[in-house]
Amino acid sequence: MALLDELIHLLGPEHVLTGADAAPWLTDWRGRYVGSATAVVRPANTEAVAEVVKACARHGAPVVPLGGNTGLVGGGTPDNTGTAVVVSLQRMTQIRSLDTDNDTVTVEAGCILQTLQQAARDAKRLFPLSLAAEGSCTIGGNLASNAGGTQVLRYGNMRELTLGLEVVTPEGEIWHGLRGLRKDNTGYDLRDLYIGSEGTLGIITAATLRLYPQPAASCTALVALDSVSEGVTLLSQARLGFGPALTGFELMSGESLALVTRIYPQQTLPLPASPWFALLELSDSEGQEHARERFETVLGAALESGLAKDAVIAESIAQSKALWHLRESIPLAQAEEGKNIKHDVSIPISRIPEFVETTDALLAARFPGIRQVIFGHLGDGNLHYNVAPPLGVDPEVFLQEQDDVYQLVHDSVHAHSGSISAEHGVGQLKRDELPRYKSQVELNLMRKIKDALDPSGMMNPGKVL
User: Fold this and answer.
1) What local confidence, expressed as pLDDT, does residue 462 receive?
2) Low-confidence ranges of the chain (pLDDT < 50)
């Protein structure tokens, strides 16, 4: 039986998409990568995923797992050979269990992040992963890329939020690892191998995740600053003043927020223009009044010392959401303005001011008129150091400089002891750059793991390695 016929037999014709029906699953979110495939399949449960993988193994067909297709590095897009089978997990959306005594939830990989957040709230719990694509990204994709978001400072990346996994291996076997244990020292940590592996070692079909108590109150503030260095100093003071109650600390250039208000004039900046802004969020276990008092104490000291130029504390949930909406609209505004060159980098926090100053100067000298749209999670050292073309320059023409821009920025990241991928992954976008920045020892170890777990190389080929 031909592979396509076998897939139809397994799943039914309505869940095996080909031709024009498959096209939406074969282009990445940014429109940078377009692939082709034998079919896009939509299994409804883990057992069906396993049968699909077994069929692909028999026919020698590559398998490309796909979540919400919100990735930024081409990790879920097949190549152009047309031999791959794209496995969409969009039908696997169940929340299998929610245990408030153990503070865990077990959820399938196709569940939308926002759906899980709401289920946790309904149970008076918090699932803290929060990012701009939460209305469409899936838990499987979050796991595959080890997603971070805005609250890593307090709660960690997806790896820290995960206790157990269910995975379909390249042989079509099912690893039932959905353990809700904080301690399990019985051998190699397979969970951590699969998280962040971008579907190159197996298909994550479900996960057991940590939940947290809902805070009694949260408070948000926007602070105007003169420099990145002041942002780092304010972060240190906020950590001392708030401790683990500090759940978010975002850095945004004045240019990035000016772009938002230009593209979306209905959004307004509640402070005068400034070179830099910090967005802070405090989660308090006592109440709104206590949270505000703590904010006023720390920010008052920063204003009095001249560290901060100005500040506004949200007076309501609506105002807090409006401040966060400014931050979350930056990548959307960039997309509206036109194509640009994105960087998702991680740098030791103490070295970020030097990195920004040095890299800005190098880019300005090499590409006169170039614009940096910088924002990101200063609290965990993750910057989205995005580069836009000079005003009046066709973005398509500017993109011809992409390789040179990437190398200049990534060389600077490496020189400042950083990583060229913080939370977006490697995919195909950064795959060929890894040998420039990782040692041969690291690459050899990664290859040995890949060869051991996926000896035929069928799982998401051409990604990461």
Assistant:
1) 95
2) none
Structure token pair of residue 101: 């005594």
Report the run of H or E that residue 376 belongs to, with start and end: strand 371-377
pLDDT of residue 396: 87
Residue holding tokens 């200063």?
378
CB contact set of 239 (below 8 Å; sequence gap of 6+): 246
Angstrom distance (rounded) from CA 5 to CA 291: 61
CA distances from 227 to 45, 278, 308 (A): 51, 10, 10
Question: Tell me, what's the pLDDT at 289?
Answer: 83
Phi-psi region of 74 (alpha: psi -120 to 50; beta: other; left: phi over 0): left
Position 335: which residue type?
A
DSSP label at residue 317? H
Alpha-carbon distance of 454 to 359, in angstroms, equals 39
C-alpha 131/C-alpha 137 separation (Å) is: 9
How many of the other CB atoms lie within 10 Å of CB of 371? 21
Tokens (6 digits) for 22: 């498959």
Question: Which letter does DSSP use for residue 31 in this model?
Answer: S
Q: What is the pLDDT of residue 138?
A: 97
339-438 CATH pick, 3.30.70.2740, 3.40.50.2000, 3.90.25.10, 1.10.1740.10: 3.30.70.2740
CATH number of 217-331: 3.30.70.2190
Distance between the two ends of the chain, CA-based, in angstroms?
Answer: 32
- Count the alpha carbons within 13 Å of 12 in the hemisphere toward its beta carbon: 6
Nearest to 46 by CA among 80, 7, 3, 91: 91
**∠ CA 325-330-331, rounded to 5°:** 120
Q: Indicate the fold that domain 95-213 takes in CATH.
A: 3.30.465
Task: Quickly list H helices, 382-457.
Answer: 395-398, 402-415, 434-437, 440-453
Distances (CA, A) of 353 to 222, 398, 437: 20, 26, 21
Tokens found for residue 432: 């060929």
What amino acid occupies position 246? L
Asked if 212 and 125 count as a contact pair (C-beta separation under 8 A), the reply is yes
What pLDDT is attached to residue 437? Answer: 96
Domain layout of the chain by residue ranges:
3-88, 95-213, 217-331, 339-438
DSSP state of 283: E
339-438 matches 217-331 in CATH topology? yes
Which pLDDT does position 224 carry in this prediction? 98
CATH of 3-88 among 3.40.50.720, 2.60.120.200, 3.30.43.10, 3.30.70.330: 3.30.43.10
Q: What is the pLDDT of residue 338?
A: 87
pLDDT at 61: 97
